[in-house]
Amino acid sequence: MRGFDIEATIADVSRRPGVADLLRRLTLDHELLREETDSQVVSELPGIAERADAAVRRELIDATFRRVLDRLSGGADTDGSALHRSFGAAAAVAGVALHELTAAYRVGSRVAWAHVRRVANEVGVDADTAMVLAQAHFACVDELTADSVHGYSDAIEAASHLRARDRQNRLQALLDGTPAAEEEGWTEPVVAAVVHGDAAGLEMHDDVLAGTYDGAAVVVGPTRRVVLVLADWDATIGSSGTVAELPRSFRRARQLFGLVASGALVRSGPVRWSDELVAVVVHAAPDAADELARRRLGPLADRNAARERWLVETLRAWLDNPGRPQAIAERLYLHPQTVRYRLRRLRERLGDDIDDPAARFEFAIALQFRDGRAGSVRVPRSEGAWQER
Q: pLDDT digit string (tens) for 216-255?
């Protein structure tokens, strides 16, 4: 089936008998038609009346009426397209919903066609011409509706880009620590977070700022809101504080991000600086921590992987419950006699250091470093590389 050719249809209808008289009558009736159309639009679409005053509505109706008549008379559509795009843009800025805008055109088209059909009968336009005229009329209205929708969409996109640029500038000011950052008006504690991967969608939250800073995807805002917004995201959240302290919060979030990204800290979901202070301290000097882990945990290395695992397990439980075999048994779901056997094996490897508070602290640091580096049971061989189990 051949597509509808509006230009051919207009050329056809504009030469038909009675059409010129019809268009002259419609031109004379334009004020009446404008009032009828405006009255019907206000009645059916009160939201339009709230956002566009009478002068603006009537200007649009007049422009639409003139454009349709010019097209039906065979005239060139010179600046009509740009004009209706501008009307669409203005509607977007005024807050008119897109469905309201297109509905207004449908109402206007219906009112106008009722008037056209009545005048067509009065000037003697035949039925076949009236049918072709209807096709051309509604096709013209579709054209200018599409132009307005185009203008509306362009305005929405431009406003979105403007808002995004404004958010980015505000985010930059906050993390740069410039005086303008104080203008956000946040009085409760605030925080900066670094998001892992694509952070698309976070900009939808109006009560936080999402953007990029120094190559990282970042979210900034009141601490409780940032924590809530990132509940289902992989992110690292810095220290909470005042607006002036946001640059430090970002640095800490990024430091934590580095630990997670490198595998030094095995975590998923949002990770908070305040919850990982020990890990941050341990990994601040990885070479020293690695040497400490080798020295303290090296004696637990064993060719029997199962024995190696329960030695580490028993040491961890002992550090949490020093001198309390019964508590260790309950924690490990073992018989107390089994725990005592394990503790004797542990002492054979580690000596009396397991009773020394300072040494126990070093054991705890070594385990923390080992856990962060591994995420599985790994014990350093005293003579060489890390061994995975």
A: 999 999 999 999 999 999 999 999 999 999 999 999 999 9
Q: Given a cut of 50, is residue 387 above it in pLDDT?
A: no
Looking at residue 278, what is its pLDDT?
A: 79
Collapsing DSSP to helix, strand or coil, 236 comes out as strand
pLDDT at 233: 93
Boundary (domain end) residue, out of 276, 308, 325: 276
Q: Is the per-residue pLDDT at 185 higher than 90?
A: no
Task: Give the integer Cα–Cα distance in Å for 379 and 388.
Answer: 7
What average pLDDT does range 172-195 have in this prediction?
A: 84
* Domains: count for the chain: 3
286-297 and 277-284 helices, crossing angle to 10°: 100
Pick the closest to residue 159 from 210, 112, 93 (CA basis).
93
Task: Tell me if 166 is assigned to some domain.
Answer: no
Give CA torsion, residues 181, 183, 184, 187, to 10 deg. 100
Say yes or no to pLDDT of 7 above 70.
Answer: yes
CA dihedral sign of residues 314, 317, 319, 325: negative
- Asked if 210 and 221 touch (Cβ cutoff 8 Å), the reply is no
Do residues 329 and 364 both lie within one domain?
A: yes
Kindly state whether residue 309 falls inside one of the protein's structural domains.
Answer: yes
| Eight-class DSSP state of 267 | -
Residue 12 falls inside a structural domain: yes
Residues 137 and 117 sit within 8 Å (Cβ to Cβ): no
Range of the domain at 247: 184-276
Please report, rounded to a whole number, the percentage of residues in the chain having pLDDT higher than 70: 92
- Give the helix/strand (H/E) hosting 311: helix 305-320
Pick the closest to residue 79 from 67, 92, 65 (CA basis).
67
In this structure, are 149 and 243 located in the same domain? no
Secondary structure of 124-179 in HEC code, one letter for each residue: CCCHHHHHHHHHHHHHHHHHHHHHHHHHHHHHHHHHHHHHHHHHHHHHHHHHHCCH
CA 345, chain centre distance (Å): 55
Tell me the C-alpha distance between 212 and 138, whole Å: 48
pLDDT of residue 350: 93
Residues 127 and 31 in one domain: yes
Last residue of a domain, one of 207, 241, 276: 276
- The alpha carbon of residue 80 and the mean position of all alpha carbons in its chain are separated, in whole angstroms, by 37
CA 351/CA 136 separation, integer angstroms: 98
